[in-house]
């Protein structure tokens, strides 16, 4: 790949491509819909329960990491399907590992959510 140097136009174009990738994720990836729904629920709950700035930072990173992992997983799956449309054990392993990475982050995000929200919910309900 030839690098012909830095220009603001190229940097702006790269943002256009990145936003298109986010749109593709949200528009077509069914698992991303689940993550987005969970993120909306968490943001609403955070607004109602009055999260601190530090809590919002942690929650924002948890949401961002899960969505980024889902985007990487989806791109790996799309590329793998292009390279090997038929069944291939190595492709299956690659896809399973990528999906496992998303699951690990989703579980970690759920734990973060419990750590942040359970004490607030106990106070809110009690």
Automatic annotation (TrEMBL):
<keyword id="KW-0812">Transmembrane</keyword>
<keyword id="KW-1133">Transmembrane helix</keyword>
<feature type="transmembrane region" description="Helical">
    <location>
        <begin position="97"/>
        <end position="118"/>
    </location>
</feature>
<comment type="similarity">
    <text>Belongs to the bacterial diacylglycerol kinase family.</text>
</comment>
<protein>
    <submittedName>
        <fullName>Diacylglycerol kinase family protein</fullName>
        <ecNumber>2.7.1.-</ecNumber>
    </submittedName>
</protein>
<keyword id="KW-0444">Lipid biosynthesis</keyword>
<keyword id="KW-0418">Kinase</keyword>
<keyword id="KW-0067">ATP-binding</keyword>
<keyword id="KW-0547">Nucleotide-binding</keyword>
<dbReference type="GO" id="GO:0016301">
    <property type="term" value="F:kinase activity"/>
</dbReference>
<keyword id="KW-0808">Transferase</keyword>
<keyword id="KW-1208">Phospholipid metabolism</keyword>
<feature type="transmembrane region" description="Helical">
    <location>
        <begin position="32"/>
        <end position="50"/>
    </location>
</feature>
<dbReference type="InterPro" id="IPR000829">
    <property type="entry name" value="DAGK"/>
</dbReference>
<keyword id="KW-0443">Lipid metabolism</keyword>
<keyword id="KW-0472">Membrane</keyword>
<dbReference type="Pfam" id="PF01219">
    <property type="entry name" value="DAGK_prokar"/>
</dbReference>
<feature type="transmembrane region" description="Helical">
    <location>
        <begin position="56"/>
        <end position="76"/>
    </location>
</feature>
<keyword id="KW-1003">Cell membrane</keyword>
<dbReference type="InterPro" id="IPR033717">
    <property type="entry name" value="UDPK"/>
</dbReference>
<dbReference type="InterPro" id="IPR036945">
    <property type="entry name" value="DAGK_sf"/>
</dbReference>
<keyword id="KW-0594">Phospholipid biosynthesis</keyword>
């Amino acid at each position: 790949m030839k690098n012909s140097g830095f220009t603001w136009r190229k940097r702006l174009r790269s943002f256009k491509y990145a936003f298109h990738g986010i749109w593709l994720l949200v528009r077509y990836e069914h698992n991303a819909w689940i993550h987005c729904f969970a993120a909306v629920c968490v943001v609403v709950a955070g607004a109602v329960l009055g999260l601190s700035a530090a809590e919002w930072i942690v929650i924002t990173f948890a949401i961002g990491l899960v969505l980024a992992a889902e985007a990487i997983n989806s791109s790996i799956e799309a590329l793998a399907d292009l390279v090997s449309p038929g069944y291939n054990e190595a492709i299956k392993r690659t896809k399973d590992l990528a999906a496992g990475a998303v699951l690990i982050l989703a579980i970690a995000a759920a734990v973060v959510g419990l750590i942040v929200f359970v004490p607030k919910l106990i106070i809110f309900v009690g």
